[in-house]
Amino acid sequence: MDAAQAPAGVVVDVEALAGPVGSEAPAAAKGPAWKRFLYHVGPGFMVCLAYLDPGNLGTDLQAGADHRYELLWVTLIGLIFALIIQSLSANLGVVTGRHLAELCKTEYPAWVRICLWLLAELAVIAADIPEVIGTAFAFNLLFHIPLWVGVLITGSSTLLLLGMQKYGVRKLELLVGLLVFVMAACFFIEMSIVRPPAKEVIYGLFIPSLSGPGATGDTIALLGALVMPHNLFLHSALVLSRNTPSSVRGIKDACRFFLFESGVAMFVALLINICIISVSGTVCNSSNLSPDDSAKCSDITLDSSSFLLRNVLGNNSTVVYGVALLACGISSSITGTYAGQYIMQMILSFELPFALIPLLKFSSSSITMGQHKNSIYIIGFSWMLGSVIIGINIYFLCSKFVGWILDNSLPISANILIGIIVFPLMLLYICAVIYLTLRKETIKFLSCGELQTIETDKSKVANDSNNEEKKEHVSYNGV
């Protein structure tokens, strides 16, 4: 069977998926299990940075200041869901040999592709802005560099570090992993100094509660900061850097190793988020807090939050916090920009349905994934939790806009004009979400068995060609 004999509607890329003729078994299929696992380490730590960026840092600090440890359970649920959808993204790339942006490009008509691309680019821009500004704040805290200079340094340093990928994506993954552990070390030091009550932290982590004023809005903000749509494009692309064998066992092993690796990375991200919320919750709710610091707790910003450790570290609190923020900002800026190059082939809460729904549909489809599609339990849980988060986001966007219309000081005529423009756009947004959900996928990728048949046929053709060349060589020597 060759590409020309593939059934109609089947997308085939023999060279990409079956591998070159006569090549040796990939490194992913050799050696003991621990060595094969290490071969797959990297993508999970790259994507976990989206859950540790300065935007998350600011949201965590304010949630801890306002509600102490009450919203820790939101972080736990958000990162469990993040682990599930990130593993689905990784599986999609491993099984199909294509990343999510390429699948969207193949599956959807031109007008849908253009809309998805524009929304995804807006999501990357929206994620990059707090990352760049947060890094500029870190430069200001550590070296007293003006913010506008810090922004320029961040942009140029990000492009310089991204240039490392020409030496191999593993080098970039190693750098990002080191930055993650620097960040973790700084926040663990902070938590060990502040020493929040373990019993209350554990209670807040496992017992859901929304008793404080504004808790619902902060919960939505935490969930929005923990589910990053551009990460779904990135993870499905990063796994393609590994040479996964095109066999049932090879694909299952790769999916399992990427799941374990993502689990470790997400666990580290969870611990860091717990540290941030706990430190803020402990300091801002202590009885000996000064009036000046109490006022800062009501509106924590990235450049002012170093005061949280001033009472125990003195001037060194700025250094510890600045190093953590610098590692946080640079690493997340790298991954955000890195995700953008894959989106180019194909507002975060606004964009989420347009990345999450295609991922859930592709990864749950037997047409696209074959025997590697999600189990019925994963399908049910992911769609249920995904629907809840999408519904919350839509409610949040609509309620915020309606609240702004009712409370602003514009003339009635201006509000009516804005409503005439925006409400149809909101209806179009909801219709687009429904369209993506109900539309049946049409593309199909060859199964592992068919790919192995292709590879076998290619090897046979190559061997026959080599035999013919040998015969010709013998005949020539005989003459």
Describe the secondary-structure layout:
Blueprint: E1 10-11, H1 14-18, H2 33-39, H3 43-48, H4 54-67, H5 72-96, H6 100-107, H7 110-143, H8 147-162, H9 169-194, H10 198-206, H11 215-226, H12 229-238, H13 248-284, H14 291-297, H15 310-313, H16 316-343, H17 352-363, H18 366-369, H19 376-407, H20 412-438, E2 444-445, H21 448-478
Parallel strand pairs: 1-2
Helix pairs in contact: 4-11, 4-13, 5-10, 5-11, 5-12, 5-13, 5-17, 7-8, 7-16, 8-16, 9-13, 9-16, 11-19, 12-16, 12-17, 17-19
With strands numbered from the N-terminus, the spatial order across the biggest sheet is 1-2
Our estimate of the beta-strand percent is under 5%
Mean pLDDT: 76
- H/E series: EHHHHHHHHHHHHHHHHHHHHEH
Taking all Cα atoms into account, the compactness measure Rg is 25 Å
- Counting helices, strands and paired strands, the structural category is mainly alpha
The end-to-end span amounts to 38 Å
CATH fold-type name of the largest domain: Amino acid/polyamine transporter I
Shape type? globular
Please name the CATH architecture of the largest domain.
Up-down Bundle
Estimate the helix proportion, in percent: over 70%
| Major sheet attributes | 2 strands, parallel
| CATH hierarchy class name of the largest domain | Mainly Alpha
* Unreliable residue stretches: 1-25, 472-479
Instruction: Please report the total strand number as a whole number.
Output: 2
Number of domains: 2
Alpha plus pi helix count = 21
